[in-house]
Specification:
With 154 residues, this protein is mainly α. The chain folds into two domains: 108 residues, Winged helix-like DNA-binding domain superfamily/Winged helix DNA-binding domain (Arc Repressor Mutant, subunit A); 40 residues. The chain contains six helices and three strands, in the order ααβααββαα. Helix 2 packs across helix 5. This is MarR family transcriptional regulator.
Length: 154
């Protein structure tokens, strides 16, 4: 397994291990963070922002409702739409998750000099830009591939 993947997997595992007592399970921190930025999203909006299927969000939210982190409320303008809101326990969990992630990152950077941290940050930002560009390229190719296939059917 490539080094970056191993690092990310271990960081993810450590973070979730430290959150066991808060009833925060794998996959839930992004939900908590998204709702802390945009409380009251519909399940469909939440799925789109997280880039996952609506069914995946539904399963996560069912568990989070059961644990008391979020609550669903009908949209006041459209009763067919369920909006998702953080509860007080959910807002506290956002804080706990942030602390756990910061602690894990601090531990990972133990012994790394400030200069090395700046270089690492620069490299990671560069890599992030590259990955985003790659995503756009793949997305265009996929759309072009579909368009070609659709045009062949005509």
């Amino acid at each position: 397994m490539p080094l970056m993947a191993r690092l990310m997997r271990q960081h993810h595992y450590n973070s979730h291990l430290s959150l066991k007592d808060q009833d925060v399970h794998p996959g839930q921190p992004p939900v908590l963070f998204e709702l802390s930025r945009h409380d009251g999203l519909s399940q469909r909006e939440l799925a789109a922002k997280m880039r996952v299927k609506a069914a995946t969000v539904t399963v996560m939210l069912n568990r989070m409702v059961k644990n008391g982190h979020v609550e669903r409320r009908p949209d006041p303008n459209d009763q067919r739409i369920q909006r998702v809101y953080l509860t007080d326990k959910g807002r506290a969990a956002v804080h706990e998750v942030r602390e756990a992630l910061h602690a894990s990152e601090a531990y990972a950077l133990k012994g790394v000099t400030p200069e090395e941290r700046m270089l690492l940050r620069r490299l990671l930002l560069h890599m992030f830009d590259n990955v985003k560009q790659y995503e756009q390229m793949i997305s265009r190719q996929t759309k072009e591939g579909r368009t070609d296939a659709e045009s062949e059917m005509d």
